[in-house]
Write a structure and sequence with these properties.
324 residues, alpha/beta, two-stranded antiparallel ribbon, globular, binds ligand PBG, binds zinc ion
Length: 324
């Protein structure tokens, strides 16, 4: 029955009515807070990501404990190593910065889910996500190094391994290495659908991980493709992924929706550094209401089909969700 019999505004009259018919609810349990750890002692703010700070392992453990007390269930760790070289060898040292942070966090806050990003770009002198052969990233040689890095994080006590490199076959390779090393009980969150995106700019400032030549288009996905996203997800599931991910989030809500309709696995979306920086910049100028904008964005990502959202807004969003 059309108007005047049907009047959708009847269900929008008061906040209580709106609550009753709300289709999507954002929960503190959905949020994963990404953090950067580095060896030096002082806290180091990231200029292009206001509110984001690089911490040493001890400070990271303090901040992680506070985040857990506020209700955050999981963090995702990125490492800025003491040195970079051709192969990214700092990433698999058992006394490396990420390994130290994992140990510190698990000893102070054992119930916090600790996830570690696995990739080589933060650790290589050339900034690419794998090792180079004749100026190109060599897929299969890189797999061994990613497994090596993963095992070192696992020995430090990490709960979930999150490979972000986009090499072919890395989920299967890492899964096999984990199982053989006795880590059959730990999970893999695969960056299954990771686009070659301009929105990673501030992250690369934070981690000093911009490629020194060329770009990542030879391994990260073309932003124009969505059928390929479904294929990447299928492969990662066949290889043993426990959680799949779409990244970035905002220009890819249709991809999140498509992947959601094709898999029963938990689906994560990464609200990346550039998406965060845009909001912070506009809010600082007084052009946007930050709280309302962030809650609207996070709700939109969930509505598109994500179960989990990795976001630098996590700590503030927790307070805003509690305020209602
Ligand atoms: C490492 C990695 C990147 C991000 C997550 N893991 C950077 C990249 O691929 O260049 C981006 C995260 C963000 O922008 O917030 N491969
Ligand atoms: Zn990388």
């Amino acid at each position: 029955m059309p108007f005047p019999i049907t009047r959708p505004r009847q269900l929008r009259r008061t906040e209580s009515i709106r609550c009753l018919v709300r289709e999507t609810t954002l929960s503190v349990d959905d949020l994963i807070w990404p953090i950067f750890v580095k060896p030096k002692s002082e806290d180091e703010p990231v200029a292009s990501m206001p509110g984001v700070v690089r911490y040493n392992p001890i400070r990271a453990a303090e901040e992680a404990a506070t985040a857990f007390q506020s209700g955050i269930k999981a963090i995702l760790i990125f490492g800025i190593p003491a040195y970079k070289d051709e192969t990214g060898s700092a990433s698999w040292q058992d006394d490396g910065v990420v390994q130290q942070a994992i140990r510190a966090i698990k000893s102070t806050t054992p119930d916090l889910v600790v996830i570690a990003d696995v990739c080589l770009c933060e650790y290589t002198s050339h900034g690419h996500c794998g090792v180079l052969k004749d100026g190109e990233v060599d897929n299969d040689v890189t797999l061994d190094l990613l497994s090596r890095q993963s095992l070192s994080f696992l020995r430090a006590g990490v709960d979930v391994i999150a490979p972000s490199d986009m090499m072919d076959g890395r989920i299967g390779h890492i899964r096999k290495s984990m199982d053989e090393a006795g880590f059959g009980n730990r999970a893999i969150m695969a960056y299954s659908v990771k686009y070659a995106s301009a929105f990673y700019g501030p992250f690369r400032d934070a981690a000093g991980s911009a490629p020194s030549f060329g770009d990542r288009k030879g391994y990260q996905m073309d932003p124009a493709n969505v059928r390929e996203a479904v294929r990447e997800v299928q492969l990662d599931i066949e290889e043993g992924a426990d959680i799949v991910m779409v990244k970035p989030a905002l220009a890819y809500l249709d991809v999140i929706q498509r992947v959601r309709s094709k898999t029963e696995l938990p689906l994560a979306a990464f609200n990346v550094s550039g998406e965060y920086a845009m909001i912070k910049a506009a809010a600082a100028m007084g052009w946007l209401d930050e709280k309302r904008t962030v809650l609207e964005i996070l709700t939109g990502i969930k509505r598109a089909g994500a179960d989990l959202i990795i976001t630098y807004h996590a700590r503030e969003a927790v307070q805003w969700i509690k305020e209602g």
